[in-house]
Design brief:
The chain is mainly alpha-helical and about 400 residues long. It has two domains: about 180 residues, MFS general substrate transporter like domains (Growth Hormone, Chain: A, Up-down Bundle), CATH 1.20.1250.20; about 200 residues, MFS general substrate transporter like domains (Growth Hormone, Chain: A, Up-down Bundle). The longest helix has about 30 residues. The chain is globular, with a radius of gyration of 21 Å. The N and C termini lie close together (about 10 Å).
Amino acid sequence: MSAPALAGPVGYGRVLAVPEFRAVFAAHVLSMLGVIVSEIALSVLVYDLTGSPLLSALTFALGFLPYLVGGTLLAGVGDRFPARRVLVVCDLVCAGCVAAMAVPGTGIGVLLGLRCALAVVSPVFAGTRMATLSDILGGGDLFVLGRSLLRIVAQSALLVGYGLGGLLLAVLAPRHALLITVAGFLASAALLRLGTRHRPARARVRVRERAGTRRLLADRRIRLLLLLFWIPAMFAVVPEALAAPYADALGAGSPGLGLLMCALPVGTVAGELYAGARLGPAARERIALPLVCLTLLPYLGYALHPSLTVSLLLLLLAGAGSAYTLGLDQWFVRAVPEELRGRAMTVLSAGLMTIQGVGMTLAGVAAEAVGVRATVAAAGVVGVVCCCALAAAARRAARPGC
């Protein structure tokens, strides 16, 4: 996992200069905003129909749980079929599901079932898209920066999408807002179909799902890299999961809650932009493991009962530390055989979403027992220990002969 001898920073401008990537980037913006707006609109629609806060919250939870199903049962789809076809079909399936949600008279059970279907398709789409980036941009620094840009869009979409969703629902009924989401998915499908070129399937022979995933996970380097992506993320979501009760404990009200929800994504975007624009690939790989060990350290500050301002600074620092992912991306694409790349990216995406859902759930359970501040501080302690252990294992695996 050592860094290759590469030149200095390439810069995001070089990535955006690639026409195919611009099509993927624009499609990503549309689909991300569509997903977020649909989540808000569906949550409001379910609450309007039932008056149940539990069922309304369940629409968000269902966005996490089925990822594991899609990531395990459908992991090889992106390798067995041409990537462009998989991406377009996924967008069309999502458009169809949301269109069905918008039909008047659709029952609650059907609405939640359609929400599950979206979540099953999502890891296949995300994994295939990430594998396609390596075809479009190559496996070097351009790929790392392209993946970074898509992550930045995802974080920015959280900030913009919730505000946009709120504005739409102020002037439109939830079902009408869902129709706008349908248009976004269709536009994304059109961009991918017309803006990217056809490439044959990666896998020359059909590989059974279990055998292919077993082969992937049999490689110790790949297992370590997957854990380096997943474990920090499981602990990182704890403050987000507990933002509402924490804002209430601070007496910060709704404005404070909004700031607490935004701080981590803002830090993440700032860290990725700096690492992507100002550091070369070798430097980003050198700092990856130290940042993995440090990124959760700010959470220990919650034990000191910080004010809202200090809490925001701690979250910004923790978010900036997630720039370690740029170094991990390069190691991951080098470690995975080309014929398993779509499967690997799907497993990575599915595992990431699933483990974040697990982290949020455990955070809620722990907060009930010991309180919010103690839970976040404990997440910092346990998370730092786990991350340091993984970083040490990764260093040993990188030594010659290991």
